[in-house]
Amino acid sequence: MKANVNKKQAGFSLVELTIVVVILGVLATFAVPRFMSSVERTKASESFSYLAQVESAQARYNAEKGIYATSVSDLDISIPAPEFFTPSSPTSSDWETKWEMKLTRNGASSGYGRYTVVFDQDGFNRSASSIPDALAPNN
């Protein structure tokens, strides 16, 4: 005599899987832009770190020689060129009192476009920089 066994099938139905996929899609819609913004803020911090080191070295150079250095290679630092930015040479109209240096974002920037970060003898120059406010440090 054959027993009539009720076999219950394990697994997910197509409706359940569809609901999970839709929920994951909605979550990704919100998470991906925030993640990309976070990644770009991290890359932007590279420019601030690089230029802050140049600013400190320029202050030491000026204290020692009475003028600012016309080239980063003249400074007492050895830092590699930024990976995500193209540096300009320091510029000035009067090397005894001021200098300015600009980094320009190269490559894709997660929807922020090409922007610049400018430092001078006083530090980060927000008015001369074109970095979006969302990426700039809060002073």
Helix content: 25-40%
User: In total, how many beta strands?
Assistant: 4
Total of domains: 1
Class from helix and strand fractions: alpha+beta
Provide the residue-averaged pLDDT: 88
Q: Count of helices?
A: 1
Computed Rg: 27 Å
| End-to-end distance | 84 Å
Unreliable stretches (pLDDT < 50, length at least 5) are: none
Give the H and E element order: HEEEE
- The portion of residues forming beta strands comes to 5-15%
The best one-word shape is rod-shaped
SSE blueprint and pairings:
Elements: H1 14-65, E1 85-87, E2 100-105, E3 116-120, E4 123-124
Antiparallel strand pairs: 1-2, 2-3, 3-4
Detailed description of the structure:
The chain has 139 residues and is of the alpha+beta class. The protein has one domain. It is built from one helix and four strands. It has one helix at residues 14-65, and strands at 85-87, 100-105, 116-120, 123-124. It has a four-stranded antiparallel β-sheet with strand order 1-2-3-4, with helices on one face. The longest helix is centred in the N-terminal third of the chain and has 52 residues, at 14-65. The radius of gyration is 27 Å and the shape is rod-shaped. It starts with 13 loop residues before the first helix and ends in a 15-residue tail after the last strand. The mean pLDDT is 88.
In short:
With 139 residues, the protein is an alpha+beta fold.
Structural features:
139 residues, four-stranded antiparallel β-sheet, 1 helix, rod-shaped
